[in-house]
Automatic annotation (TrEMBL):
Entry protein name: Peptide/nickel transport system ATP-binding protein
PROSITE patterns: ABC_TRANSPORTER_1, ABC_TRANSPORTER_2
Source organism per UniProt: Streptomyces pseudovenezuelae
SUPFAM superfamilies assigned to the protein according to its UniProt record, in alphabetical order: P-loop containing nucleoside triphosphate hydrolases
Location(s), subcellular: Cell membrane
Key words, A-Z: ATP-binding, Cell membrane, Membrane, Nucleotide-binding, Transport
Pfam families named among the record's database cross-references: ABC_tran, oligo_HPY
Family that this chain belongs to: Belongs to the ABC transporter superfamily.
Upper lineage: Bacteria, Bacillati, Actinomycetota, Actinomycetes, Kitasatosporales
GO molecular function: ATP binding
Membrane topology: Peripheral membrane protein
Location of the ABC transporter domain: 7-255
Length: 338
């Protein structure tokens, strides 16, 4: 299937007083219609920056961007701000962690959803209000014809998140970018929102990019997974490949720090020691080497001197100097414990 979104060798660099921050440094991926790509990584790994760049929401004055972002064949990096404005909300749309920041406190929920619709379709006020009610019903707000005139503060946190999803989907976007959209919600509401997104994807065939640091969420919603570290992709593959047989020590570390993909927590967490790399002065060689438990298994001190290439075959690959045999050997304990 032809990818709906295709990102090719994307680089996003910020100029700061202290130097250049290489927030994203050579990233490529595709998302097909009706599919969900999960992007996982710690904060500062470049996952949010990547997606703000796709949406054209970066600050152009301090940002240098290279590469290509093709949405349905159209290169977003050469599109005018006006064109991007038209695409945002219409062809591509986003939901964020914080619904309160996305919804204005001064207007009713219905008006905000309706205005987005009006802006992109030229529908009348009456039609837009009807559409807002329909969207609120679709995202599971009870009595939508009453609640449409409520203000965001009259909604619970979970309902606000639903309202934001309604606003994001009001123009039937073909690409939805969800950046940690359920992080602030309790587990039950989180599960409901995930189910909602899956249902809506089934109904509309939306391509989804789901950004999270939570592998449990990835296990629930993703088809394909991309693991980011220090502005680069370190591993990618199908969800099953990445979660069941990780190839990169960082992915292994993430997986080991979560007890089980299903079921209750009964194993102590072992988060990866150390902190994410500086993107101003990234570590030499493999950016993960200061934290990697396997760096000394690679001969010649290669891990601290040479950057490992990301070798991808049929969408599956990782960037590490360990041989596949070494990984089979070193990661065996992990496989057994699964
Ligand atoms: Fe670890 Fe070396 Fe592989 Fe990097 S290249 S993940 S430091 S073993
Ligand atoms: Mg983020």
């Amino acid at each position: 299937q032809q990818p709906f979104l295709s990102v090719k060798d994307l680089k996003v660099h910020f100029s700061t007083e202290d130097g250049t921050v290489k927030a994203v440094d050579g990233l490529s991926f595709d998302v097909a219609k009706g599919k969900t790509l999960g992007i996982v990584g710690e904060s500062g790994s470049g996952k949010s920056v990547t997606n703000l760049t796709i949406l054209g929401l970066h600050d152009p004055a301090h940002t240098t961007i290279e590469g290509e972002i093709l949405l349905d064949g159209e290169n977003l990096l050469t599109s005018s701000p006006r064109e991007l404005e038209r695409l945002r909300g219409n062809k591509m749309s986003m939901i964020f962690q914080d619904a309160l920041a996305s919804l204005s406190p001064y207007h009713t929920v219905g008006r905000q959803i309706g205005e987005t619709y009006r802006k992109h379709t030229g529908a009348s006020k009456k039609e837009s209000r009807d559409r807002a009610i329909e969207m609120l019903r679709r995202v599971g707000i009870p009595q939508p014809d009453m609640r449409v005139d409520d203000y965001p503060h009259q909604f619970s946190g979970g309902m606000r998140q639903r309202a934001m999803i309604a606003m994001a989907l009001v123009c039937d976007p073909e690409l939805l970018i969800a950046d940690e959209p359920t992080t602030a919600l309790d587990v039950t509401v989180q599960a409901q929102i995930m189910d909602l997104l899956k249902d809506l994807q089934q109904e509309f065939g939306t391509a989804i990019i789901f950004i999270t640091h939570d592998l449990g969420v990835i296990a629930d919603i993703a088809d394909d997974v991309l693991v980011m570290y220090g502005g680069r992709c370190v591993e990618r593959g199908t969800k099953r490949e990445v979660l069941r047989s990780p190839q990169h020590p960082y992915t292994l570390g993430l997986l080991s720090s979560m007890p089980s993909l299903e079921g209750p927590v009964d194993v102590p967490l072992s988060p990866i020691p150390g902190s994410p790399p500086s993107l101003l002065n990234p570590p030499s060689g493999c950016r993960f080497h200061p934290r990697c438990a396997f760096a000394d298994k690679v001969s010649g001190g290669l891990c601290s001197t040479a950057q490992p290439a990301l070798d991808v075959v049929d969408g599956r690959g990782s960037a590490c100097h360990l041989t596949l045999d070494q990984r089979d050997e070193f990661f065996a304990d992990f496989a057994v414990s699964r």
